[in-house]
Amino acid sequence: ARANDIKRAVVLLDETAHQAGREELVKFVNRRSTPGVERQLHAGTDPNFQTADGATPLLLAIRQVPRFPGARLVVDVLARWRDPEGLTDTQLQLAGADGVTPLALARLLG
């Protein structure tokens, strides 16, 4: 029983760390902080998760471009991200909850 409790605690800590990394990545995307986004990606944060409203970090960044042209730098970092271990490359065709993919949205917004 004790071994199972330890395993559950490790899984819980791991999930808590992943959630914190996701929150940090969204924060840096929303601030249009290219260095922050790069830091989170290099720390192992998977860029393919969906926020509570169903958007991926890449979709969040693309949506900012019409108002903040500097957001294109964040879009570029996310779109080109290739995990050195090949585990968490950004998925350009991963649709948000509304069914829109980052590529489709980028084309629509120019």
Please characterize this protein's 3D structure.
The protein is an all-alpha fold. It contains five helices and no strands. The protein has helices at 2-30, 34-42, 57-64, 71-80, 102-109. Helix 1 (2-30) runs parallel beside helix 3 (57-64), helix 3 packs antiparallel against helix 4 (71-80) and helix 3 runs parallel beside helix 5 (102-109). The radius of gyration is 15 Å and the shape is elongated.
Short overview:
The chain is mainly α and 110 residues long.
Largest sheet: none
Q: Number of helical runs?
A: 5
| General shape | elongated
Average pLDDT number = 88
Question: What layout of secondary structure does this protein have?
Answer:
Blueprint: H1 2-30, H2 34-42, H3 57-64, H4 71-80, H5 102-109
Helix pairs in contact: 1-2, 1-3, 3-4, 3-5
